[in-house]
Design brief:
Layout: E1 6-10, E2 18-19, E3 35-39, H1 41-44, H2 49-59, H3 75-78, E4 97-99, H4 101-107, E5 112-116, H5 126-142, E6 150-153, H6 157-169, E7 173-178, H7 184-192, E8 196-200, H8 204-218, E9 221-222, H9 229-234, H10 236-244, E10 252-256, H11 261-275, E11 284-290, H12 295-301, H13 328-337, E12 341-345, H14 347-358, H15 366-380, E13 390-394, H16 402-409, H17 431-444
Parallel strand pairs: 5-13, 6-7, 6-9, 7-8, 10-11, 10-13, 11-12
Antiparallel strand pairs: 1-2, 1-3, 4-5
Helix pairs in contact: 5-6, 6-7, 10-11, 11-13, 14-15
């Protein structure tokens, strides 16, 4: 039994309702607000900030189960009640923090970094949250609780993570996908891992409505970010970032937002570090939305005084094609605490932003393109100081979106003027022609 405790709590402090983590519950029964996981910080503060830094650094990328995972290396801050034998982990996290030196020099800012969260088991940051959620389910099952399956609605990445972790744990997984709205790579992942894949003739919001109804009426465990266990894993991105900077805090962090659990998780990670004394300041946060699915951006324009869902239009950043995000209240609370900004990127802006940074050696998904596009717009507005340290969160691996990449370079993406297209030269197998083409290309660059 761990000396550290955690529990579900209503996000409305005036309500104050709490529930155990092994209870199947997603909203407060008293006021219907979302829940969040809270920790006994009094117990955590019995260790000094330096002791926690030393513990986390000593575990980082080690092979002692389960602490080699960058999530479970922070187990006391994440989900201490799960027994080590019930943890389901692929040693997620510890992803590359890439210094985008060449890109930074091109734009006059040399302290630009890209956190490559897509360099993970299923190719996205969703692994960080799913290891926690599936581990809790396995813990509950070991205690005799009946959980027939775990289910999620997804635009691709969540379903891949759920299917993989459930397959490892021998737990049935069900995924609800919007028909013809996910990439082939995203579709094949849950199929390959043996999940029951339901392709519904609707959008993500329709899938989300259906999965909540199915889970509520059939005791199936819901794995979407409405379940705040996911946030506990994802908040370790913030802790890991500070580790990788020798416990210094970046000035800015920019992340794409769809269902808005990610921006909430980032903030939560920084808040617990500050509360326990590991850091002495907070970064500014930027949530980047696709222009075709931008309800948080529209609310931000009115100082968050009102929020109205929108009908999300088709966007190349399909994983954030969400018009009615479930974590909106959490996201707004975090953005207010971090003096946050919400910016949007058009289809043209996100595609060209991804392409220009690809030309400096990365391989960005369209959602990272949204964050990059928002970054470039804010830079043009003079938001950043040239010496600011800026981290852009890359949420998924570009190889999951090869159709997007091919379409860009073939100049076939609707609404996009491919400024940096790099089309293969089709030539006869003739030496002089090949040589001339090579040197003509090299001299023009």
């Amino acid at each position: 039994m761990s000396e550290y405790k955690s529990w579900f709590s209503c996000i409305d402090d005036e309500c104050g309702e709490t529930y155990p983590l092994d209870e199947i519950i997603y909203r407060c029964r008293k006021c219907d607000n979302l829940l969040e996981v809270r920790h006994d910080t009094v117990a955590l503060k019995k260790k000094s900030a330096q002791e926690w830094r030393d513990i986390f650094d000593g575990r980082y990328r080690r092979q002692l189960w389960p602490h080699g995972s960058s999530v479970w290396g922070k187990k006391e801050w994440v989900c201490p009640f799960v027994e080590d034998d019930n943890i389901v982990s692929m040693y997620e996290g510890a992803t590359n923090l890439f210094w985008a030196e060449r890109f930074g020099k091109q734009i006059g800012m040399e302290d630009i970094w890209i956190k490559m969260c897509g360099n993970s088991h299923t190719g996205s940051f969703k692994d960080l949250g799913m290891t926690v959620l599936v581990s809790v389910v396995k813990q509950m099952m070991s205690q005799g609780k009946e959980v027939p399956a775990v289910a999620c609605a997804s635009t691709g990445d969540t379903s891949a993570a759920l299917a993989a972790y459930c397959a490892s744990a021998e737990i049935p997984a069900i995924v609800f996908l919007p028909k013809d709205k996910v990439s082939i790579a995203q579709l094949v992942q849950p199929i390959s891992n043996g999940a029951l894949v339901l392709s519904l003739d609707t959008d993500f919001d329709g899938c989300m409505e259906m999965v909540q109804k199915v889970c509520t009426e059939n005791n199936i465990y819901l794995a979407n970010s409405i379940n705040s266990l996911r946030i506990e894993g994802q908040k370790t991105i913030s802790i890991e970032l500070c580790q990788q900077f020798d416990w210094e805090v970046p000035d800015w962090i920019i992340i794409p937002g769809g269902n808005l659990g990610n921006i909430s998780a980032l903030g939560k990670g920084f808040l617990i570090m500050k509360d326990l004394g590991l850091i002495d300041k907070l970064p500014r946060l930027v949530c980047a939305q696709a222009e075709h699915a931008n309800p948080l951006y529209l609310s931000y324009l009115n100082n968050f005084e009102e929020f109205h869902p929108v009908k999300a239009k088709k966007t190349l950043a399909n994983a954030i094609q969400i018009g009615n995000p479930v974590s909106v209240n959490k996201a707004i609370n975090i953005l207010k605490q971090f003096d946050g900004i919400v910016e949007q990127a058009s289809e043209d802006e996100l595609a060209n932003a991804a392409a220009i940074v690809d030309k400096t050696g990365t391989f960005n998904c369209p959602h990272t393109g949204v964050a990059l596009g928002a970054f470039l717009k804010l830079k043009e507005k003079g938001v950043f100081d040239p010496k600011d340290r800026v981290v852009i969160i890359s949420t998924a691996h570009g190889l999951k979106f090869v159709e997007f990449k091919i379409g860009y370079h073939k100049k076939e993406l609707e609404g996009v003027c491919s400024k940096y297209a790099n089309t293969p030269l089709e030539l006869p197998a003739d030496y002089d022609t090949v040589r001339d083409a090579i040197f003509s290309k090299i001299s023009s660059n």
